[in-house]
Design a protein that fits this description.
Layout: H1 2-21, E1 26-28, E2 32-35, E3 37-40, E4 48-56, H2 57-62, E5 71-80, H3 84-105, H4 115-124, E6 126-130, E7 133-136, H5 137-141, E8 156-163, H6 172-186, E9 196-200, H7 222-244, H8 247-255, H9 263-272, H10 274-286, E10 290-292, E11 297-299, H11 301-312, H12 314-326, E12 336-338, E13 348-358, H13 370-383, E14 397-404, E15 409-414, H14 422-437, E16 442-448, E17 451-459, H15 462-469, H16 480-493, E18 500-504, H17 518-531, E19 535-541, H18 545-554, E20 558-562, H19 567-582
Parallel strand pairs: 4-9, 15-16, 15-18, 18-19, 19-20
Antiparallel strand pairs: 1-2, 2-5, 3-4, 5-8, 6-7, 6-8, 10-11, 12-20, 13-14, 16-17
């Protein structure tokens, strides 16, 4: 296995090196271009990226005396003002995942103690720029760089990166590109596809500056300034909605920042983590929306205006949040999987209004396509010279049939203390995304402390889903057996169609149900899943892999081991399983 993984890394290293030696660039995925040269494009053709083969990136940006010492990467997105600190932190996480992956595959490369040092060295070599500022990833992630004030930020169409790394680390570029894409989408913006790369030797104007600029007509006009202000305000609101779970809760948070005290902050810290609370307040302070008063954090005048705007336009903003969730683009990954299920979905026949055929003895009267039937009868009556339209059996048209497999999904979520923060937000986002993008029902069961409860019965209502998710507060132990039993009961009680049970946990059970052995009870409960012919999907992390393998095997389900329980990994896994189940034959 180690030899195979090393072979893959060498293949990518040789592939990129070959293109760079030819002064050419490469498209990675759909949105990223990387080369050793300067990039540019014409606003009239945003999907076409030019690589200037006679303009070395190191010479142009850093005044280097040698070529091919600096890699230039651009990740493209819709015009937006991105937070460079958030992008830098996502890159940091991506590189950390990369080093841990390499270490797990071949521990002879370096020791575990060397990982923090390697991480620091590489993040210091990556220069990042968005409209919010620029600097190396290490300093930006540590907030050691002065950022561009919100009002002065200009929307841009790409995240610009420059870095100098040894070819043996070229495979880390994949992790960096993915991290940047996630940072873009998590801030509520779309990534943009690169349709074509054009290599040219046209001479560029050499001028001071940092990176490729794409001009926007009338940028300094009052209309453009107003548009930038609205865009920045919307971005801040989307970030708050993501942090608190909804526009309603984000508005309540702002309303709690009063001179008399910040009562709401304690409950937020308990649910999402004290570090997240501090980071949110720091971000708002940097945007001049919040300031530290004598006894508490209070809103500035701009903060009050933002709070009032959220209250006055709550419905429109909630619609914008739903739109953002629906449009979220999932980035596919490779995971360690263990497959145990052969369960197929049961399909039903429904009317296909896009397909019209002639009438047959087996057709139902309710399936008659009336407009098509009338047209057919009119044409026949006219050709036969009849004074009136008559309908005969041969004129009748009926709608066809198509197979449909409704999949009702139950999410069984570990809400123990270890799930606080980003993990529980990612799971909540998964539930919202599934309800908004499918026509089937979603249910949420949580297990923590010493029991389990249904926070969202099977529903198609987004409002009911949000109300249930708002009650989740991670804490305590992991009563996995109780969570499984409760999930089976709600599936049976509601007679879910082709039920899909998604079990998400980052630990192992530590509170029993029937005996004194929590793990044994969880395996007993898992057998009940198979007995009730429920398709099981388990999502875990490396520390609980061995136990989850046994649980998935007993429950005759599929197991995915992910690097971290974040939004993208969860959406990727569950979407794959849902599609495989829905279209199984």
């Amino acid at each position: 296995m180690e030899s195979y993984e090393r072979h893959k890394r060498l293949t990518l290293e040789n592939y990129l090196s070959a293109y760079f030696r030819k002064n050419q660039g490469v498209r990675l995925g759909e949105t990223t271009v990387v080369s050793c040269k300067v990039h540019g494009n014409d606003p009239k053709t945003p999907g076409e990226i030019r690589i200037y083969t006679d303009q070395d990136a190191g010479r142009y940006y850093f005044k280097n005396t040698e070529d091919n010492l600096v890699l230039h990467m651009d990740v493209f997105h819709e015009p937006a003002s991105l937070d460079p600190v958030y992008v830098a932190r996502r890159i940091w996480q991506g590189i950390e995942t990369y080093f841990n992956k390499v270490y797990d595959e071949n521990r002879s490369l370096y020791s575990k103690d060397d990982l923090p040092k390697l991480l620091k060295i590489l993040t210091q070599k990556i220069i990042l720029r968005t409209s919010g500022g620029n600097g190396n990833v290490f300093d930006l992630a540590s907030r050691k760089v002065d950022l561009v004030p919100e009002k002065a930020r200009k929307p841009q169409t790409h995240v610009h990166l420059l870095f100098s790394i040894e070819p043996k680390y070229y495979d880390s570029i994949i992790f960096i590109a993915d991290a940047v894409e996630q940072a873009i989408m998590n801030q509520g913006f779309e990534i943009r596809r690169v349709d074509k790369i054009v290599h040219t030797e046209r001479e560029l104007e050499t001028r001071p500056g940092f990176g490729m600029g794409i001009g926007l007509p009338g940028f300094n006009s009052p209309e453009a300034r107003e548009q930038r202000y609205r865009q920045n305000r919307l971005q801040i609101i989307m970030n708050l909605a993501s942090a608190f779970g909804s526009i309603e809760d984000a508005a309540r948070f702002l309303e709690s920042l009063t001179p008399t005290g910040n009562i709401f902050l304690g409950s937020f810290a308990k649910k999402h983590g004290d570090g997240d609370l501090k980071q949110t307040l720091l971000d708002l302070s940097n945007a001049d929306l919040v300031k530290k008063g004598r006894f508490a954090f209070i809103l500035t005048e701009e903060g009050k205006a933002l709070r009032d705007f959220m209250r006055d336009h709550q419905k429109e903003l909630e619609a914008q949040v739903r739109k953002s969730i629906r449009r979220y683009q999932i980035v596919r990954h490779n995971y360690k999987t263990y497959r145990n299920t052969e369960l197929k979905s049961r399909k039903a026949q429904i009317t296909d209004h896009k397909k019209v055929t002639g009438w047959s003895e087996r057709a139902w009267l309710s399936d008659i396509a009336i407009p098509e039937t009338v047209v057919s009868a009119s044409a026949r009556s006219y050709l036969e010279g009849q004074p009136h339209v008559t309908i005969k059996k041969k004129d009748i048209k009926v709608f066809g049939k198509k197979s449909f497999a409704p999949i009702d999904t139950c999410l069984a979520i570990d809400c123990s203390g270890s799930m606080v923060g980003e993990k529980i937000r990612a799971v909540s986002y998964l539930a919202e995304h599934f309800l908004l993008t499918s026509k089937e029902k979603v249910s949420v069961v949580i297990f923590h402390e010493t029991g389990a409860r249904v926070v969202v019965p099977f529903t198609k209502s987004y409002q009911k889903l949000q109300e249930g998710l708002r009650t989740i507060q991670p804490e305590g132990l992991t009563p996995l057996a109780k969570g499984i039993v409760e999930s089976i009961e709600v599936i049976k009680k509601k007679r879910a169609r082709n039920p899909l049970l998604v079990l998400i946990t980052d630990g192992i059970p530590n509170y029993p149900l029937w005996t004194t052995d929590a793990q044994k009870d969880a395996l007993t409960a898992a057998r009940m899943i198979a007995e009730n012919k429920i398709r099981l999907v388990c999502i875990g992390v490396v520390p609980n892999e061995n136990f989850m393998k046994e649980l998935a095997s007993v429950g005759q389900g599929n197991l995915y081991i992910v690097d971290e329980l974040d939004k993208n990994s969860l959406l990727d896994v569950v979407t794959r399983e849902w599609e495989q189940y829905k279209y199984s034959k």
